[in-house]
Write a structure and sequence with these properties.
33% helix, 5 helices, globular, alpha/beta, 155 residues, two-stranded antiparallel sheet
């Protein structure tokens, strides 16, 4: 997994809303949080997405943009976002190229690990957390990002 100080790999991925998002466009208006998650509509991923939704206002107020990334198709992301009123963009990484670039591809190439990255406007990873089962660690990470400070928390 990439860590603090590493350059964030570029990407341009399709979004659930029908558009696409690149890392460079995301960083044009400030720092960004990328959170990788295994799948739409699973219990853990739904809990994580709703937690991110609930913190979204604080992150935006701090000037931080957030996107979620997983392998499901855009149609799944759209339904997931609509069902849970998610105010942030979900990106489709069908072949897991971006997950691999960030070092969060699952064991033996199966699935995607639950990881969150804070990326500066210069495209440098400021902090990251990897916690496959502990959503609370991602919440603490996002709270720190909203306050303008990260705290690395890896499993």
């Amino acid at each position: 997994m990439l860590k603090s100080g590493d350059t964030a790999p570029p990407f341009d991925l399709p979004a659930g809303d029908g558009g696409s998002v690149s890392l460079s466009a995301l960083l044009e208006r400030g720092p960004a949080v990328l959170y990788f998650y295994p799948a739409d509509f699973t219990p853990g991923c739904t809990a994580q997405a709703c937690m991110v939704r609930d913190l979204h206002g604080e992150l935006v107020a701090a000037g931080v943009r957030i996107v979620g990334i997983s392998p499901q198709p855009p149609e799944s992301h759209k339904k997931f976002a609509e069902k849970f009123s998610l105010p942030f963009t979900l990106l489709c990484d069908r072949d897991k190229t971006t997950a691999k670039a960030y070092g969060v591809n699952g064991p033996f190439g199966i699935g995607v690990r639950r990881a969150t990255f804070l990326i500066s406007t210069e495209g440098v990873i400021e902090d990251a957390v990897l916690a496959d089962l502990n959503i609370g660690r991602h919440k603490a990470f996002l709270n720190a990002a909203a306050r303008g400070a990260g705290s690395t928390q890896n499993e």
